[in-house]
Amino acid sequence: MARQTRIRTKTQDGHTEILVLVNHPMETGQRVDPKTKEKVPAHFIQKMAFTLNGKEVAVADLGVAVSKDPLVGVKLKGAKAGDKVKVTWSDNKGESNSADAVV
Amino acid sequence: MTHLHRRTFLKGTLGATTLALAASAGLLKPERVLAAEWSKPAFEAKSINDALKALFGASQATASGSIKIKAPIQAENGAVVPIAVSAALPNVQGLAVFVEKNAQPLVASVALTGAEGYFSARMKMGQTSDVHVVCRAGGKLYSAKQTIKVTVGGCGG
Description:
heterodimer; A: about 100 residues; Immunoglobulin-like; four-stranded antiparallel β-sheet; three-stranded antiparallel β-sheet; B: about 160 residues; alpha+beta; six-stranded mixed β-sheet; 9 strands; SoxY (chain B); Thiosulfate oxidation carrier protein SoxY (chain B); signal (chain B); TAT_signal (chain B)
């Protein structure tokens, strides 16, 4: 099932911030399940790519130390109203999703 | 006599493996520059220096006042520590965030190809620790750090 991915942009003084919120457990692989006493396998987002009008502007590599339901932000300079931003993420279990927004 | 053979055999294989290792290290380099692959060795590194070497191929970073870390001085919940990093340096190519005392210090590494030198996220911290930010700009590494106090750790159960 595709996980909920939300994207939002905020423009202020010519700088546009892209904020992405993904509903994801971000398991470290070190946590122990209190019931079964077994380690919960790692499950986390590894790649997050941001594009502006189809051109890649930033690629974030995330580790297990990023909190669950990650909220990640990057900033763009000079993005105009109507520009399309898109984020695509993929995790270590091969799940992925994307979301797009208009500035 | 059999032992001698064994020695020479071992020596031969050892030489071959070191060669193979060197070759694979050389082959891996361009990948690192393109940041196409999620850097497993960097994220699994146990120290900041090792992670830096795996990420940028160098661990020497100059302290810079142009890198601003916006994070709480004291975080009540180590599972969610908001951090925002901005680097006012020319030609910012990448940013990396490390938590010194986490088992795996590297939190995130961002390759920037058009976006500004800015990155924000929420991270987990096991205990009170220095947070290091390393910025790659114009082929050089710059760093900044801040201590964040954690009341309740965010790693483990």
